[in-house]
Amino acid sequence: MEDADKLLSLRENRDPRVLAVKNYKNYFGIGTGGGLSETDLMVDFAQMACVPANEFPAIMDKKHAQLTDIDRMKLKIKLGVFFAQPTKEEIDAKIAQDPWNVAAPVPAADENVAPQAPGPASHDAV
């Protein structure tokens, strides 16, 4: 990376919620991974994969490094910001900023679907 400030922002994993500071919302720098590499490594959130829970024991047996508690929290925040980015359609529909306080769009009538009455409100929802 040629821009020293961009590289520093990646190494520091700056808070992506602070708009006044240069940062990367889609990458998480992990340095050399505790000696796993001679060069800096990073996580690209757009290239993540899911691993079935039954595969975890085999993966954990081969674990060579672990994030610190602070770096793990930074990773969680950056992941949340990355996955919470609104789509262009959501921005254009003006629902991205505060979806709790906008009128719900009325769906187009589908003559093949019978109208359904709303169910009772659940007070157990989390």
What do you see in this structure?
This protein is of the alpha+beta class and 126 residues long. The chain has one domain. 28% of the residues lie in helices and 7% in strands. The chain contains 4 helices and 2 strands, in the order αββααα. A two-stranded antiparallel sheet has the order 1-2. It is extended and about 55 Å long. The mean pLDDT is 80.
Characteristics of this structure?
two-stranded antiparallel ribbon; alpha+beta; 126 residues; 4 helices
* Low-pLDDT segments: none
Please tell me what the overall shape is: extended
Helix/sheet category: alpha+beta
User: What is the total tally of β strands?
Assistant: 2
Mean pLDDT: 80
Largest sheet: 2 strands, antiparallel
List the total number of helices. Answer: 4
Into how many domains do the coordinates divide?
A: 1
Query: What is the percent of helical residues?
Result: 25-40%
Helix and strand element order: HEEHHH
Q: Estimate what percentage of residues fall within beta strands.
A: 5-15%
Distance between the termini: 43 Å
Main sheet strand line-up: 1-2
Radius of gyration: 21 Å
Which helices and strands appear, and what pairs or packs with what?
Elements: H1 4-12, E1 27-31, E2 41-44, H2 56-61, H3 69-83, H4 88-92
Antiparallel strand pairs: 1-2
In short:
The protein has helices at residues 4-12, 56-61, 69-83, 88-92, and strands at residues 27-31, 41-44.
